[in-house]
Amino acid sequence: MKRSYRGVILLCAVLFLNIIFTQKAIHQYYYEDYTATVIYAILNIILFPIALFIYHKEKNV
Amino acid sequence: MDKNNKIPFDEDNYTHNINKNNERKLDRRGFMKTMVGAAGLFAVSTLPWGSIAATELMGLREKKYPKKEIIDVKKLNIGDAFEFAYPTDHDSALLIRLGENEYKAYQNACTHLRCPVFWEQSKSELVCPCHHGFFDVKTGSPTAGPPRRPLPEITIQVEAGKIVATGVKRYET
C-alpha cells in the first residue's frame, strides 16, 4: 500500500526549526538579549502543538 | 499452512510479509511519533532559558556589582596578567596591565566552551588553548577560532594604589 510521507517531511521541518530556535535562544541569552530569548522560547513551545496537529492529520494518510 | 496456500489471503492488515520481530517498531507512524516527542522535548528544554530571561526582563534581578580589590598596582608589571574571580568566586577573570595607566579585565571563560582564556604576552593576545580561540585584548572581541561572542569586560578603577573591579559591562544590543 502506498503511503503519504508528507507528515514525515513536515515533522522533519518542525524539528529542524526546533533546533534552530533552541540554538538561537541560548545564544541570545548569553548575549544578554533577553527579549529575543523569550521570543525564541515561545516559538519553540508553539512548535509542539503544531507537531501534534501534523501527526493527527497525517497518521492515517 | 492452509491459509497461505489460498490466493488472496484471508487477511487485511498487510502484515503477512513481516517475519522479523519488531519489524514494525519504527514504521512511518512510529517515526512521526518520535518526531512529535522530540518537538516536545525541545519545547520543554527552552523553558528554563525563557523563564530566566523573562525574570531578567522584568527587572526582578537588578544587577548590582560589589567593589572588589584585585591587586596592588605595584605588584603588577606592565605586560603582565593576574587571574582573579569576579563577581563571585566561581567567575574567573583576568586582569591585564597594558600600559602605565592602561588596564583591561575580562571574565576569562571562553565564549565557545568556557575553557579559561590566557594572556599571551609575546603575541599580545588572549588565547584559549582548548580550540585555539583568540581574543583582542583591547576590546575582548574574538579574532580567530571557534568563539563568536566577545568576552564580558569588567570595569576597573585605580583607588589609592589598588586596582578595584567595579562591575561587568553589558553587551551593547
Automatic annotation (TrEMBL), chain A:
Keyword field: Membrane, Transmembrane, Transmembrane helix
Superkingdom as given in the UniProt entry: Bacteria
Transmembrane parts of this sequence: 38-55
Name of the protein this chain belongs to: Uncharacterized protein
UniProt source species: Chengkuizengella marina
Organism taxonomic ancestry: Bacteria, Bacillati, Bacillota, Bacilli, Bacillales
Automatic annotation (TrEMBL), chain B:
Keyword Membrane among record annotations: yes
Pfam families: Rieske (PF00355)
Keyword Disulfide bond annotated: yes
PROSITE patterns, A to Z: RIESKE, TAT
Cited SUPFAM superfamilies: ISP domain (SSF50022)
Rieske domain: residues covered: 70-165
InterPro entries, per database record: Rieske_2Fe-2S (IPR017941), Rieske_2Fe-2S_sf (IPR036922), Rieske_Fe-S_prot (IPR014349), TAT_signal (IPR006311)
Top-rank taxon, per record: Bacteria
Alphabetized UniProt keyword annotations: 2Fe-2S, Disulfide bond, Iron, Iron-sulfur, Membrane, Metal-binding, Transmembrane, Transmembrane helix
Transmembrane segments annotated in the record for this chain: 35-58
Xref: CDD domains: Rieske
GO molecular function term, any single one: 2 iron, 2 sulfur cluster binding
PANTHER family: CYTOCHROME B-C1 COMPLEX SUBUNIT RIESKE, MITOCHONDRIAL (PTHR10134)
Protein name: Rieske (2Fe-2S) protein
